[in-house]
Write a structure and sequence with these properties.
seven-stranded parallel beta sheet; 48% helix; alpha/beta; 248 residues; Rossmann fold
């Protein structure tokens, strides 16, 4: 897959799946604009890409803040003539019984995991419509497809991201814009590192391939949807879970 001459925006790009996606897109020829709330790690990720002779810029981005998204959009337009790909990777969750959740916790989950992709897609959509081309790839979760113990509102937010993907895909297909969704299973990221050992071990045990996903394996699915090889694929949801969720 080649992305020569294209510009890709990747959210949550300072670590984990987001960083792996930014690195993979840059290696395939795209100029990548990395966005994340973690400025230090984001700058380091962009610098590492540039050190390999590839194109990358970092811009601070908080996908829960509409003003931050607008500032990011404006600065991206200064750096690059157009954005061809938006990969909405930023996300967050924590395992906790539903009855222990606070309303503030619910709000954070929904604003970040659902409204983040909604607002980022809206920010970059009109220029895509005007030129009749574009790729949007949302990263949800298999929790949004089949539910997940201790992640009830997270699952609801990710399920909303899946529904948003399908509905937006129907709306913008006439403009040659595709919108697809990747649903990772348990993945070896910094977020997973914060999960208690017994839960990580349980994830490994119930996954038919008997291991966690690597971030690069999720990035490969994102790159497929962003590529010309998926030019007639839209509104689709791809689970990358080592066989954990074969149905549903």
């Amino acid at each position: 897959m080649k992305f020569d001459g294209q510009t890709a925006v990747v959210t949550g790009a300072a670590s984990g799946i987001g960083r792996a996606t930014a690195e993979a897109l840059a290696a395939a020829g795209a100029h990548v604009i990395l966005g994340d709330v973690n400025t230090e790690a984001g700058e380091a990720a962009a610098a590492a890409i540039r050190a390999r002779g590839q194109g990358a810029d970092f811009l601070r981005l908080d996908v829960t803040d509409p003003a931050s998204i607008e500032a990011f959009r404006r600065e991206a337009a200064v750096r690059r003539p157009q954005v061809d790909i938006v990969a909405n990777v930023a996300g967050w969750g924590k395992t906790e019984p539903f009855v222990q959740n606070t309303p503030e916790f619910w709000d954070k989950l929904v604003v970040l995991n659902l409204m983040g992709p909604v607002r980022m897609s809206r920010a970059f959509l009109e220029p895509m419509i005007a030129r009749g081309a574009g790729r949007i790839v949302n990263v949800a979760s298999d929790a949004g497809r089949v539910g997940s113990l201790g992640e009830t509102v997270y699952s609801a937010a990710k399920g909303g991201a899946i529904a948003f993907t399908k509905s937006l895909a129907r709306e913008v297909a006439r403009y040659n814009i595709t919108v697809n969704c990747v649903c990772p299973g348990p993945t070896d990221t910094p977020l997973m590192a914060a999960v208690p050992d017994k839960i990580r071990e349980a994830f490994t045990r119930v996954t038919p391939m008997r291991r966690l996903a690597r971030p690069g394996e999720i990035a490969d699915a994102i790159l497929f949807f962003a590529s010309a090889r998926a030019s007639f694929v839209t509104g689709q949801v791809l689970s990358v879970s080592g066989g954990l969720t074969m149905a549903g």
